[in-house]
Amino acid sequence: MPRWKALPEELDPSLREFAARLRGLVDRSGLSPAAVADRTGYSRTSWERYLNGGLLAPRGAVVALAEVTGAEPHQLTMAWEAAERAWSRSETRHHMTMEAIRASRARATPGEAGVAAAPVASRRPSRTAGGAGPDRSRRGGRRRAALFLAGVVGALLLVAGAVLLIDLGGDDDAGAVPAAPSAGAGTGAPRSPSVVGCGGAGCAGQDPETTGCGGRFADTVARATVGGALVEVRWSATCGAAWARITRASAGDTVRITAGSSEQEGAVGAEAEAYTPMVAADQASDARACATLVSGATGCTAPG
């Protein structure tokens, strides 16, 4: 079964290219969607929408993905700016089309309302002038239909002209200041210590994700390559705690975090990655991560 869904056929070519580029980064990193969500601080559901063309990733998410996959941030943000302009044009077209439809309906409504408001003296057709009542009603209906169609045509011509003006601008505005990134999980202020589930010694032995210490509220402060695996120290200033993470690993590999006399360990399962429970760490330099692989290779991050 393919890893990715087919991108929507109506997706703008620039957006299609950008989504494919993000997918390529994730594929080459070997990370699962859950790992991407954990490392960037954006939810798994959000990343599924970004990668499947349903929503343009905010700048903060793109920068975070570049960091965790080793991509060049400047080049990726330049590609994001082009995609953001294409997304804005698509949203403008959709908005103007909906406004035109609403306007055409509004033009037709007064005539219909006037007919509906007219008093009805009898349910029988008028016999005056040889039954002219029904003919007059049919002529009125045709007149309202003609007015409605004229309104629709005029509105669509207005939309077509506006779209033409937008497209004439093309992507020549590469030097323009990009729109501010939309608010998202990666752009908010650090969480208050009163909101997370623990702090300092109270975090010892706890899961960094369930307590809220992970995601965008943590930093990778040290890393080392052991065999083919990547070992990292993750540290949260907000929680005053650290944990170890291992990726690109094999089932049975283990990873360990130490800070002073405290130590926690985690084992790799079927997903080729794992992280340990937390240890208290007032400073990032207090923590050190080590790995032992089933191949026999061992290694640790540098002290301090």
Walk me through this protein's architecture.
The structure is a single chain. The protein is an alpha+beta fold and 304 residues long. The chain has helices spanning 13-29, 33-40, 44-51, 59-69, 73-117, 132-169, and strands at residues 219-226, 229-236, 241-247, 254-259, 262-267, 274-275, 279-280, 287-292, 298-300. The strands form two sheets. Strands 1, 2, 3, 6 and 7 form a five-stranded antiparallel sheet that branches. Strands 5-4-8-9 form a four-stranded antiparallel sheet, with no helix packed on it. The relative contact order is 0.10. Mean pLDDT is 75; it is low at 112-132 and 165-193.
Please report the number of helical segments: 6
Radius of gyration: 30 Å
- Average pLDDT works out at 75
Helix content: 40-55%
Low-confidence stretches: 112-132, 165-193
The tally of strands reads 9
Give the SSE string: HHHHHHEEEEEEEEE
Shape designation: elongated
Largest sheet: 5 strands, antiparallel
How much of the sequence is in beta strands? 15-25%
The span between the termini is: 45 Å
What class do helices, strands and sheet pairing give? alpha+beta
Keywords: Membrane, Transmembrane, Transmembrane helix
InterPro entries: Cro/C1-type_HTH, DUF2690, Lambda_DNA-bd_dom_sf
Protein name: XRE family transcriptional regulator
Pfam families: DUF2690, HTH_31
